[in-house]
Design a protein that fits this description.
The chain is an alpha+beta fold. Helix content is 37%, strand content 23%. It is built from 5 helices and 5 strands. Helix 3 runs antiparallel to helix 4 and helix 4 packs across helix 5. The radius of gyration is 18 Å and the shape is elongated. The N and C termini lie far apart (55 Å). The model has no long low-confidence stretch (mean pLDDT 94).
Length: 142
């Protein structure tokens, strides 16, 4: 018989740098899972990512207080900020452009995110990432 799912928690955590403090501790502690065990497993599974790169993780907590998690690719906004060498996006994206990325950067980001996007091909994935860039005040060159 399948385990009863108690909760599903979505978090964004720097790869390889999870600690029992915010956001991991309060989010998972309320469901009664072993936070130390989660931190150890998460950090060992995300060692291959660039240090400090924020990744999305979905933690499924079961009724017997066991858990499993799925690590997703980093959010598109994080990848766009890294490609454009920005600290943050624009507060007024229609009026104030803060940076730019090339179509090559856009394609690399789309390829990295392809598994997590609802896109049938790389061109539609690139258009999705382009939309995120537009809402952040980042222009696309070439």
């Amino acid at each position: 018989m399948a385990k009863k799912i108690l909760a599903s928690v979505r978090l964004q955590i720097p790869a390889g740098q999870a600690t029992a403090q915010y956001p991991v501790g309060p989010s998972l502690g309320q469901h009664g899972i072993n936070i130390g065990e989660f931190v150890r497993q998460f950090n060992s599974q995300t060692q291959s990512y660039e240090a400090g790169l924020t990744v999305s993780v979905i933690v499924t907590v079961y009724g017997d207080r066991s858990f499993n998690f799925i690590v997703k690719s980093p959010p598109a906004s994080v990848l766009l900020k890294r490609a454009a060498k920005l600290a943050k996006g624009s507060g007024k994206p229609n009026a104030e452009k803060v940076g730019s990325v090339t179509r090559k950067d856009l394609k690399e980001i789309a390829e990295m995110k392809m598994a997590d996007l609802n896109a049938s091909d790389i061109e539609s994935a690139m258009r999705m990432i382009e939309g995120t860039a537009y809402t952040m005040g980042i222009t696309i060159e070439g």
